[in-house]
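User: Predict Bifunctional NAD(P)H-hydrate repair enzyme's structure from this.
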Amino acid sequence: MYIVTAKEMYDWDRKSIEEAGMDGKLLMENAGRAVAGQVEKQVRSDQYIIVLIGAGNNGGDGFVIARTLLNKGYAVKAWQLVPDEKIKGDALAHKQLYLGAGYELDHLTEVNQLFRELDQADVVIDAMLGIGVEGKLKSPFDQVVAYVNQTQAYKIAVDIPTGVPADEGVTEFDGLQADYTCIIAAPKMSVFLQHTAPFYGEWEVVEIGLPPLKLNKPSQSLWERYKAIASLPKRNPFSHKGTHGKGLLIGGSYLMPGSIALSARAALRSGAGLATVASPGSAWPSVSSHIPEATAVDAKEVNGMLAGRLDVDFSNFDAIALGMGMGRSNASQEIVRQVMEEADVPVLIDADGLHHLKEFLEVLKNRNRPTILTPHPGEMAGLLGITVPELLARPFERGRRFACSHGVYLVLKGPATIITAPDGTQVVESSGNAGLAKGGSGDVLSGILLALVMQSESISEALCNGCFLHGKTAELLTGERYSQSDLLATDLIEGLSQSFRTFSI
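Assistant:
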């Protein structure tokens, strides 16, 4: 499933009509009927529904929705919020069909009259404004949206909640707070932004018959369950431990031994054949007690943290993950530089490793093998030298620029994780829940990703599948045994077996 910008969505509509010869009125009928079908699944026929209709295609969809629901016996009242001359083209054609069917249409002349109706509504369907809105809402939409937001009615938005920007980069707006959004054709970028996603509520995409062979393919897409099931690594019955990868994990410290232990255990639970840990000797007793299957590399330490260069042959390993719990001492920084300059295998850098890396980002461009960075927003903002709000306003754009300019794979973690390849292709992985908002979850993800990188032909697929397993494991566990409050990172590791049984075929 592709993710589109407003411009890309307009281009899809244009190509469908001009190049594929589709009738715009037919597409509008398809859209309205598809939304109405979803409304029927959530609303009883005895509930009072108000459809708020504006100009443009969104308003045209509203006329189709109202007519379709009235045809099926629902209690619906349609309100047109703009002057008659604002209703044009395909929307006007569907307004005429609505009126021609004999149904009544209320016109907004005084907002308090509408407000009194809204107080009586069980359901409000928002077909006021679509993806073309920029900036603050104007009258009467600003007043109507503010009033709808404070009502008790169940709120359903058509394609996008009124006032919410379709694209990234807009932080000041007035938005309708929907309980459910029925998205037309493809999710818009704002579905996956932290400051706009909450306005959508639950959401679902409906198909309206656009011709896929005629449409440009956006560079953003959504990683879906069927893709994961098709591409998760399969175990060969004649394989051995070396077949599934020998991973080196570098990190941990005397005061933070758990981080590297979590990563190593997660790597082995995710199918890695062998895991070797390079951590301070003072931390090793704690690490080994949690992951006895791992072997160790002798490493120098100062004050309980890794220090100086590692005496290790990196060519003995298939991939490396570093940074988890290693600390931020200047002595540890030398190890990060050594790995980046000497390791001729894929390298994943997380946590404290990212803190050290920002001092010499130029080494990224000199690597011939894949480099994977897995920052959360705070770490990504640090790499870019900007604030977290600045990053979150444009995570797609800033992530793409960084990945392309430095030649790295970037896993920007969040409720919707954005995975960017060095060529700028982006995939959103949106599984998981608030149970992951706890220390250690990121360390587990690093271990999963390391294991899948060693077992997959495609780095991008490995990263998408790793994030998928991480998030889906949290969903499975909190749907049965745990709550989102008490889920621990160690629970995630042990729950991976359930995810593999569920999603591997």
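The mean pLDDT is 96.
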